[in-house]
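User: Please fill in residues for this 474-position structure.
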């Protein structure tokens, strides 16, 4: 967790060994006879041909042994992690090694800076780890590097039963599943309890309610400067996770993010920007939304659960909680809430010689018992662990003051490639798509373009980016 799916190589045949014994062409040559007359001599050409033939066989066998990898498992697993310190996963690794003699697991924590590029380069050079951490939106970028989950480890039916629907959707690639999660996260609405108590307000459940409340809870000085904001929305430069928030608004409004045009898309974009351009509850002069909330100057703040660690570090005495993400009015009370998922998962390199062991390890780590142990280890070094990705563990965290709201809305969570802080580099799918949407937001906020014009440019750019990764637009 930050302080913030395929091809399988089945070539496991052993190399051809060196033949034993001499070739038949030599064994049929009769031994030379001892004679007094020099008229007949041993035909040297047969001897030369035999030697050449024997050397060719030996050379071919040597080439097979040396020039072609055996793909035989060594029992040694290298795992690239991204957020958890080695001390967090060490007890589980030790337990697995104890029950699997001959297996050695090396966990290496990576720096998030340029992580996607560094991982891609290592895999391209044939030096990749057996297991690596990747973002839930990265499947298209690593499609040729991700091994398919064997049904002997976990069937597709069991996978769908074990994990939330968004996880199954994110890592189903073709007919394969290419990742196993050991954590989960999504957007949630943070509430400053002191501000709400003082104003006698209750958290909003709809976006219209949130907007009205944001205006009521915004305080300005005599010069019009915002001293307390109701909500951080409407801009890109200082609204952390604006990408996920905008994507969420569009998904709730029925927008196809691969082709974000039409009235519903325009309405969602306009609604996002209106908090700055019309309501004036947030502007470019303010600090980042995370900093403002930690400082007690922001009533409502939208972010994933991991931001709570940063908030707590900056302001340990701040009173706050999270509540479910607001929704649009529903046509039926049975409709599930829609929130936006952003999380990391573990994959197995398609060229790893230890794929079977790697998948078995991930299956072990994603079991209910292992996840509870992992959560306990994480909670020992911070205020709480990662939300469980399993549906059968929801009851364990549904009442948690921070991640309970995330678990409550997990069944209806959605995701897409518009995501922040994935460290995918300037050429990554997240960064490229974010740039187009950022231009659209800024153009509408400043009045340079209408929502229709801005989104037309976005749709063209997004289509080009998705085509790079073989993603078709519906």
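Assistant: Residues filled in for all 474 positions:
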């Amino acid at each position: 967790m930050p302080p913030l799916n395929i091809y399988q190589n089945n070539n496991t045949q052993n190399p051809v060994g060196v033949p034993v014994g001499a070739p038949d062409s030599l064994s049929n040559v009769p031994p030379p006879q001892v004679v007094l007359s020099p008229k007949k001599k041993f035909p040297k050409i047969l001897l030369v041909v035999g030697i050449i033939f024997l050397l060719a066989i030996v050379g071919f066998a040597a080439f097979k042994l040396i020039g072609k990898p055996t793909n035989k498992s060594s029992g040694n697993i290298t795992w690239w992690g991204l957020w958890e310190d080695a001390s967090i996963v060490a007890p589980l690794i030790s337990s697995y090694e104890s029950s699997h003699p001959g297996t050695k697991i090396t966990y290496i924590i990576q720096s998030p800076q340029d992580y996607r590029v560094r991982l891609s380069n290592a895999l391209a050079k044939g030096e990749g780890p057996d297991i690596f951490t990747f973002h839930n939106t990265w499947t298209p970028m690593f499609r040729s590097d991700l091994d398919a989950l064997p049904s002997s480890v976990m069937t597709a039916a069991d996978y769908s039963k074990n994990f939330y629907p968004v996880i199954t959707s994110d890592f189903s690639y073709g007919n394969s599943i290419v990742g196993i999660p050991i954590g989960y996260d999504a957007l949630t609405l943070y509430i400053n309890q002191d501000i709400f108590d003082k104003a006698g307000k209750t958290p909003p459940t709809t976006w219209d309610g949130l907007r009205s409340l944001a205006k009521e809870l915004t305080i300005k000085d005599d010069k019009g400067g915002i001293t307390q904001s109701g909500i951080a929305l409407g801009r890109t430069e200082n609204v952390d996770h604006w990408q996920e928030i905008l994507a969420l608004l569009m998904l709730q409004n029925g927008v196809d993010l691969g082709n974000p045009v039409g009235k519903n898309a325009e309405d969602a974009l306009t609604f996002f920007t209106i908090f700055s351009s019309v309501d004036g509850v947030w502007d470019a002069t303010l600090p980042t939304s995370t900093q403002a909330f930690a400082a007690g100057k922001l009533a409502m703040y939208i972010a994933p659960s991991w931001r709570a660690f940063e908030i707590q570090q900056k302001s340990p005495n701040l009173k706050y909680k999270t509540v479910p993400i607001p929704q649009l009015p529903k046509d039926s009370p049975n409709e599930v809430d829609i929130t936006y998922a952003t999380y990391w998962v573990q994959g197995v390199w398609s060229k790893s010689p230890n794929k079977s062991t790697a998948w078995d390890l991930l299956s072990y780590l994603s079991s209910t018992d292992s996840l509870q142990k992992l959560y306990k280890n994480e909670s020992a070094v911070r205020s709480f662990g990662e939300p469980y990705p399993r549906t059968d563990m929801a009851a364990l965290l549904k009442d948690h003051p921070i991640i309970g709201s995330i678990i409550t809305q997990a069944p209806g969570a959605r995701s897409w490639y518009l995501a922040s802080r994935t460290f995918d580099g300037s050429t990554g799918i997240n960064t490229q798509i974010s740039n187009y949407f950022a231009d659209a937001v800024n153009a509408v906020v400043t009045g340079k373009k209408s929502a229709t014009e801005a989104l037309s440019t976005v749709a063209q750019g997004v289509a080009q980016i998705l085509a790079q990764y073989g993603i078709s637009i519906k």
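For context: The CA atoms of residues 6 and 174 lie 9 Å apart.
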